[in-house]
Every structure is written in structure tokens, then in C-alpha cells.
Protein: Glucose-6-phosphate 1-dehydrogenase
Amino acid sequence: MSAHHGANPLRDAADRRLPRIAGPSGLVIFGVTGDLSRKKLMPAVYDLANRGLLPPGFSLVGFARRDWEDEDFAQVVHDAVKEHSRTAFREEVWQQLSQGMRFVQGTFDDDQAFDTLKSTIQDLDKSQGTGGNFAFYLSVPPKFFPKVVQQLKKHGLADQREGSWRRAVIEKPFGHDLKSAQELNAVVHEVFPPHEVFRIDHYLGKETVQNILALRFANTLFEPIWNRSYVDHVQITMAEDIGIGGRAGYYDGIGAARDVIQNHLLQLLALTAMEEPASFDADALVAEKTKVLGAVRLPKDLAAHTVRGQYAAGWQGGEKAVGYLEEDGIDPKSKTDTFAAVKLEIENRRWAGVPFYLRTGKRLGRRVTEIAVVFQRAPHSPFDHTATEELGQNALVIRVQPDEGVTLRFGSKVPGTSMEVRDVSMDFQYGESFTESSPEAYERLILDVLLGDANLFPRTEEVELSWKILDPVETYWDKHGKPAQYESGTWGPVEADEMLARDGRSWRRP
Ligand code: BG6
Structure:
């Protein structure tokens, strides 16, 4: 396209609506027998194929210890797709996709297996036309990251030929604290250049999360009041009704704060609080996100402004739920947090003095993720006191899931002869406004990896800044006491309510 065409805004707008289709490429998944792979990655690959967004010769290679042939692997993918994919199963799509499926058996220190992987990829280049372009998806526990990337290097799998690419996709958790994250970054960057490393934070792949940017920067309505002059505080909640399920091995010793505050919730905070980026390019976004994450401060008194909890037995959805300490595989003396709440402040001109309260927990009242921007009360009220007692604070609530949309809460006159004002809300719901259903986060993210689009992937600096924020909290918790117990199916420990009450505020009950 000539520069002349590139300058035409109408043409640009039209171009951006064309589907972005991946070029010749393949995906290698390490940890392919795991839950994430079956429930999210395999279905996402199929959904992309079904939407016509993968190239005809796209190849999927599984690497694991199981004694499987290619056909066994294909069968596992088939079952996973049938059970978990978002779009309908179509035999012709499956037939084409399964042509490019291969399985390589081995452990991570098995040199022979990595040689086999290399020849498998070379064969796929010939038979499927993958063009040497491969992404290596590390869906494995972090302790294996160094080994796998070193093996990729040793066997020449990370070498990019002229005109082709090799990329590393890394699942969370990216480290356990700042130090381990830095060590991991060093290991990965020895093998892959920074622009070929894609760290997954699947929240960034969610439509509603990307919509934060559209809401803020494609409109004139919100940005003028998006600051300390109008905003009283911000609440970011990620509540889950499920317990830890079969993930004891992963979760115990990690806990809620490391599992989701360090990544998902701090990314939501960054998108909510950052300045407008110069463009929607990865570099521009990272610049703004790192700036705001770098300005985040913890309160001095961590006892008063952080809370951790652990679920005790209770009732959830009409069923009896066991407590965390009774879950299979959990050390009965475990001090792991399944609920975490922190108050953060952002030291910049826009946000000085506006607290951001983050909370997350398992086995809470219901599954809901939302960002609530709560506004100050009107500076003066001409109505007499009794007429506004049912009026709360104005709020803009970005409903990330499951009931995706945006709600604006404001006061309105109750019909009648007196001037009584009460809260009402205006709602935008995805389901009502759009006919397209939202793709799964992993569809978007896998496609972006294949296209080399990095804007929805946190960079090294963001990951490290996030650990810098969380580390002092974890250290404090380690040294002081243990998590407060809360009954399953409730909204967390009373200490969390007390934490906000101390500031004269209360959590929303979504
Ligand atoms: C993962 C966490 O990153 O996100 C899990 O490790 C959590 O503990 C999950 O359950 C929630 O994802 P979603 O997309 O269902 O909100």
C-alpha cells in the first residue's frame, strides 16, 4: 500500500475492519495434557480455524510425556474441541485442521525429543507450508520455563531464519516475586528477543477489558471527569464462586494476590488509570501502563489497608462447600490466601488522593468482575435532607463479566408530588447492542501471537512493576498472623468491610 493510501482515513477505517488472518504458521504447546490446554487453548485454535482466521496449513504440535501417536493427540484435541469450543463443530473445518496435528513424546530434559520436535517442524514446513514460523506455548509450571527455553535454544528451535519467526508464549504466573520474575526474564531474553516474547494475561484478551480503552478514549463524555476532581474512589472486584477445584498443587503457597492481583487486577487498574496513549500500538500502550504502574503506592499501614482471607466451609449455590483447608491436596496448616484486598494510591496529578481498592476471592457470593468508578457527591444539595436519603454516589461500572456491559448510576426524581431523589441506572449490555458474540480471550491472544501483535501482552517492565507493588504486601503477610476465615458463599472476611469502613466507604455488593 502506498503512503498516499495510508493517509486516507476512510480507507484506513475500511482496512481495519477486514479480518486479520494469520499467515503460514504453527503452534507448539508444551504442557499439552494440562487443563488450560484442553479447556482453553485447543478450543480457541479450533474456533479460530472455524472463523477462517488461520492459514490453510496451520499446524498444532503437542509435546508431553504421554505415550501417544499423532492420532491419539488428534483425538484428545477433537474431544476438547467438542466439549469446550465456542463455535459450532463443523466436520470440514476439523478435517482440515487435523491434517496439521503432530505429537512429540518426551520430557523437558530429553535431548532426543527436542531433536524430534525440530524434524517434525521441518517436515511440517514441507507438508503444510508453515514457512518456518512457529510459536512455542509454555503452558507449564514456571519452574520448567528455564529448562524449556534452554532446550529450544540448544536444539536450534529458537533460531529465526531470514523472513520467518520464532516466538515464545509464556503463561502466568510469571515468577513468584520481583526477584524470580527478573531471573525468568533474563533466561527468556537470552533465547528470544523481547519483541518475540508474549506473556499471557488472558484478561487483556477479554472484549470488555479492551473496551475500557474505547470507553475512555473514543468518547468525550467520560474523560473530563476521570480524575481526582470528580472521582471519589475506584473499586476493582474479581469475585469467583468456585473454589480451587483440582488446582491444589498450583494454588497452595501462591494464593489469591499472586494468582490474580499481580496480573489481572493490576492490568485493569493500569487501563483504568493510565493517560491516553499516543496510539494503540504496543509501545505506546506499554509506555502509559508502565508510567501509571510506576506511580502506584501502597499505604504505609499495611495492617489497616490490606486484608487476606481463606474460605471456610459454607453453602454455595444450594450445595455444601468444604473449607480450603479440607480441600484435597492442601496442607491443613496452610496460610495461603484465597481472598485478598488492598488499597492502592496513585501518585500523580490525575489521581492524588483517590484510593483504588482491589479485591478478589474464591468461593464468594457469585462470579463477577467489575470496575466501579465511584464519583463524589454533588458539592451542594438544594433538596432537603430527607428527600435524598436513598441517593448514593454516582458510579460508572464497567461490567467485565459475566453480564458484560456498562452501567451508569445516577439520581433521579421519584415520580410524585414531592422532590424525592433515588438511584437509577442506565445500562449498556453487549447482548442487546451487538449481534456478534464476543470471542474468547484465548482466541484473540493466540491470533495476535501468530500475527506478531503485541499490544495485548504485558511487557517485562509491567510484570516487574506489578511485583514491586505486591512484594511488600506478601512479605508483610508472611510475617504477621494468618488469613481471616470467611464462610464460603459470603463476600469475604469482615476485616475487608472494616478496611473500607475505616475510610468511610463500603464495598459494592454486585
Ligand atoms: C486465572 C487464575 O488466571 O484466572 C484462576 O489462575 C482464575 O485462579 C481464572 O480462576 C479466572 O479466569 P476467568 O477468565 O474465568 O475470569
Observations:
- The chain has two domains: 25-171, 204-438+458-501.
- The longest strand covers residues 306-316.
